[in-house]
Amino acid sequence: MPTWPGSLPQKQFAGLEDKDTPAVLRTPMDTGPSTRRNRFTAVKREVTVPLILDGTDRQTFDNFFRSTLKNGTLSFDWEDPVTDSTVTFAFLGPPRWTLVAGGSTSNRLWETTLNLEIQP
Length: 120
Known about the structure:
Layout: E1 17-20, E2 24-27, E3 35-38, E4 45-54, H1 55-68, E5 76-79, E6 86-91, E7 98-101, E8 109-118
Antiparallel strand pairs: 1-4, 2-3, 4-8, 5-6, 6-8, 7-8
């Protein structure tokens, strides 16, 4: 299983969001309250991770995403932002980058938000 590159930022991302995928199925009844039941026995979590990388780290990330993860089709191990235990992540889509500071290729600053899921 691939792992998040050690040279890239690891944790403590200001602005990180973490939410469970909706797991309750509600069924309206003819009379009385709706019934509720779990749709899944294991719930995925969706995590958005904001990143700002310099040009060198952006190249490392691009190589990891495109080559190691085959354009995001493979899962990877990384630390859970809540428990610090190692869990399996998958990309929900490719990142979209914004240039926030120019300069030489290695000194440019790039901003993105990674849309990930933590797989049960």
